[in-house]
């Protein structure tokens, strides 16, 4: 299996190259040259395997340049009960008749990013070894909260790597800040930026392309790579849990083998829902893919009209991991839907970076509405949904998941489609305690995030994740805060190359 760039169909690399490089030099994203198939017999077969074995089974179809032993090394190190709270890795909760919550947040940082970022470091270091790269891999991450912590946990003390995370000083929740500033590990660095998420992101991008930095890295046997969801090594692990969930539901008699399941995904960068699309293209019987957004509803408009327009106001919401106006992974979908038309992709994405807007063809609009449904809701609807689910089912969900539930309710009302449905639950409610409590316990308030945690524990059946409880006693290691102009200096100094 080879991987092509969405901006140059003639370029071909193997998966080790795609993963260690992160992004293609032409600015395109790596995509598999064909989609491997998956039969119902195989789905039945994997239902008898552990999560780690299920993952290995799927990875063998995509990472054909990896040996079986290399794949097993990666999956064994990632999907185990040292890292995840439960043996199932991804749990399925029954919400109401025919609707299932796929809980993707039982990993070390309590958000679904762990599903991919626990394994990415092993994919990366294995890829580098295969390519005989003898450089240390340096990961730079700009984060609005969840990715940074998940990447830190994934890369901490992984030999041959070093990681640095930048977050907006006043742009993350207090729990997210505590998670990052108390991070353990000898190869990690965390720094607050006096600015917003965009400042962090543009600062990181500048360092990646800075000639002086590049030269210094080269001289010191270091190389940059990306832990962002543009990296194929982050997308492929996400395909696994949709297949795994289907296999489990079929084995438990919840669905008939072959029955179509809808999937609802709270969406930001379009990575998670794209993974569901890949699973469907492999042959997994999935129905509608329902794309749920918050009030930053650029994707809702795009799927409904074919016009992508980021020229709009940016809102900070109570589902901050979806506060995003450029959904990078859409490029992969459009490459596939356009029949791998790389010239067309170059045109659209040049327009996006120059004018902030592009419009797809009628043919693609038709394909989009065939595969996807899109909707959005605002913060008050999000909180009303958290309360409603709590009152009806005694289930406490986080703000991102609530957006998905609300859009799914709208979908059912609009279409009358009552097919069984999986809702991707992307974060633990404990991670967004204050918004969750505003919804279900509005009279309670406290400046102490652990008082909030205790209150949710009183109201829900969900145990406080150990990893969050433990933070209370961990010393703060990273207190630095710098201007964005100082980022490159900070990186050079941390790497001892200045
Ligand atoms: C990152 C994130 C999302 C968005 O996922 P994408 O793959 O970027 O679409 C949704 N919910 C939570 C909690 C997240 O951390």
| Bound ligands, each once | pyridoxal-5'-phosphate
Query: Uncertain spans, ≥5 residues at pLDDT below 50?
Result: none
Strand numbers in spatial order across the main sheet: 4-5-15-10-11-14
Based on Cα principal axes, name the global outline: globular
Write the layout of secondary structure elements.
Blueprint lengths: L2 E3 L2 E6 L1 H7 L8 E3 L7 H7 L4 H12 L5 H11 L12 E6 L2 E5 L9 H5 L2 H11 L5 E7 L3 H10 L5 E8 L5 H8 L6 E6 L3 H13 L1 H9 L2 E4 L6 H20 L9 E6 L4 H12 L3 E8 L4 H8 L1 E3 L20 H8 L4 H14 L1 E3 L2 H10 E5 L2 H15 L5 H17 L5 E5 L7 H8 L8 H11 L6 H6 L9 E2 L4 H8 L4
Parallel strand pairs: 5-15, 6-7, 6-9, 7-8, 8-16, 10-11, 10-15, 11-14
Antiparallel strand pairs: 1-2, 1-3, 4-5, 12-13
Helix pairs in contact: 1-6, 2-11, 3-4, 3-11, 4-6, 11-12, 17-18, 17-19, 19-20
The structure holds pyridoxal-5'-phosphate.
